[in-house]
Amino acid sequence: MRTYILKRLMLMPITLVGVTLIIFCITRLAPGDPAAAKLGVGSGNMGSQDAAKELIEKFHKDWNLDKPIPVQYFLWVKNMAKLDFGRSYKDKRPVADKIIERMPVTVTLNFISFFLIYLIAIPIGIFSAVFKGSFVDKVMSFFLFVLYSLPNFFVATLCILYFCNAEQYWNWFPVTGLKSDKYDADEILRFGPFAATNGDLKSGFKMPYNGEILEVRASLLEGGSDAGSIEVFVELDGVDLDGGRVFLDSSMAGRQVLGNSISARSSFQEGDVLDLEAGAVSGLGPADQVEVEVKVVRRPSFLEWLLDRLWHLVLPVLCMTYGGLAYISRQQRGAMLEVIRQDYVRTARAKGLSEWTVVLKHALRNALIPIITLIATLLPAMIAGSVIIEQVFTIRGLGKLSFDAITGRDYNVILAIFTMSSFLTMLGILVADILYAVVNPTIKLR
Could you tell me if residue 16 is inside a domain? Predict the structure, then answer.
């Protein structure tokens, strides 16, 4: 087996070069120009055609698109060998950074879906094979055929229509994203106005939830003095807040409201005490008023985060799972039916073993061999399927990144994602071959 694995690993770079060459040629020969897509040519955004032509030529030169295709491919392969996939045409960010940023989302979706498919499909297939021709088998077969025939974008649209529509049906699940907006929205805690005097402005305010302080802003309101200055100190749970000191000077802007916005990013837990204190007053009296604003963002607890994430994952995972579940279960049923007709299975029955012992101990391992083969095709197919699901549910994963790159003709992003998918396909085939030998030791890999 070791020799076989080494041979396959040695062939993978050659295969990958061939695949990337085909993908590279397709992207370069496809209609459309990334420069035109980037600069908005043809959409009425460019006033002068001469200026547009000059900008396009500059774009081509900057991104080596003015060179012959073989030269472009050689340069791309040279950079790829160093794991440098270039920069995105859209925002000039490194492609690798964009992929790493989006990858956890797609991996999460596909891992959960992949796990559920095999967890549910294999028992269904075994049950249908053992009770072949029964009423339950017929009902399950009909139901699975219906599921397999439904395209996932259609089911996703129906799910949004019926389960995310408070006006006409049910608002059970969120429509977009993988987390609630309340965890991204800033909240302003306002304190005051207070008299601009030394000492405590407000003490003992208990923070209502877990979160982070993003900004502290203090304002000196119009009062009785013509000029003066004050410092406002912010303490969180008895400790001076990093960056939580704001200096105000009324002479800088007359009697208008003054504000000094400073970064004061600091984590806090529910119940932590926030204290405000004024000091170093010069030229201000009790008639002068100070107002303090603390901008915070809520950070969920682990349980809140988990429940919120699962709530958002229900519909996308459902739409990614049902098709593969129907397909794998039918394949498992067919494989099990073929195995239980073998002589050694009949011999096991003749020994007096129970039917489920015969099925699970003697027949199942050989019946899993065709199912393992499907791993090589199911993994890249699920990644391709996530393109549609992520687009429908507006999930910022690799699928949506791929869709946006194709519509925006972002060649570097397209090539990087397709190269990764090709590598996963070859890796899946190799893993399937290795699992053959694990499931059935009589199989020799050469």
Answer: no
